[in-house]
Amino acid sequence: MPLVSMNEFLPAAKEKKFAVGQFNMNNLEFSQAIVQAAMEENSPFIFGVSEGALKYMGIEFTVAMAEAAAKQSGLPIALHLDHGSSFDVAMKCIRAGFSSVMFDGSHYSYEENVRLTKEVVKTAHAMGVSVEGELGTIGGVEDDISVDEADASLAKPDEAIRFYEETGVDCLAIAVGTAHGMYSGEPDIKFDIIEEVTKNIPVPVVLHGGSGVPDEMIKKAIQAGAGKINVNTENQVALTNAIRNVLSSNDSVYDPRKYLGPGKEAMVEVVKSKIRLFGSNNQA
Ligand SMILES: [Zn+2]
Question: What are phi and psi of 150, to 5 degrees?
């Protein structure tokens, strides 16, 4: 199966109230662990690739790994640019074979965000590529993006509804109190904002910063209308802890497969548990 746009599964997610996981790809082990977990759970999913990860892996390797995963699994998989910062980077990804892009214009004024997002949507849709937009500012640290908690601002429901109507995005990331990276305490998620927005637009909202959010809150967010949830940090932590365990207990290990293997297995478990929590198992 070739890579597909998010419209292959997001409408069903919205209708049946489940969420599709965006699992970020950072190297070969991530792509293998994520697709293995999804195959075991028979789930659609999204490979998220940040601009930092894109630089690290190279665009050709990124697309090749995602295409191999789609071909091997037969699952509906979208390859999605995460937090794209410009029209140019979005187009570069689409030309290389991405089936979905996020344009994050949240640091611009509302008007400028609408104008730039519309441009991306117009071109992407002409090529069958789906687009995620962002409104409000999501706090925390992710790759090159760092937003101080004080600068994080919640999305206003009426503005989010208008943003959808003006841009025609396929899903909308709105700041509702989650943050990128690890939480120091419990997040304060504004479920009423999610609900108010999703009942007025035909597409789901996206929850960024899904790592470390208590399961009950995730379930509540999905019931309120979150149809796409992003997970990266938990996989990074699982991989690194597993590697650290192997290396700290054995000084003579030098074969990378001896420590990357356990790291990969740890990520498979994380992704499987997220897929079941999101309810996207058996929805492929
Ligand atoms: Zn994000």
Answer: -70, -25
Q: Separation of 222 CA from ligand 1 center, angstroms?
A: 17
pLDDT digits (tens, 9 = 90+) for 14-41: 999 999 999 999 999 999 999 999 999 9
- Burial class, 250, CB count within 10 angstroms (exposed 0-12 / middle 13-18 / buried 19+): exposed
**In terms of C-beta density within 10 A (0-12 exposed, 13-18 middle, 19 or more buried), how is residue 85 classed?**
middle
Sheet holding 145-147, edge to edge: 145-147, 139-142, 179-180
Q: What is the pTM of this model?
A: 0.95
Task: For 143-188, write each residue's pLDDT tens digit.
Answer: 656 666 556 678 899 999 999 999 999 999 999 988 888 887 888 8
- Ligand 1 centre and the CA of 83: distance in Å? 6
Question: From ligand 1's centre to the CA of 100, what distance in Å?
Answer: 15
251 tagged catalytic: no
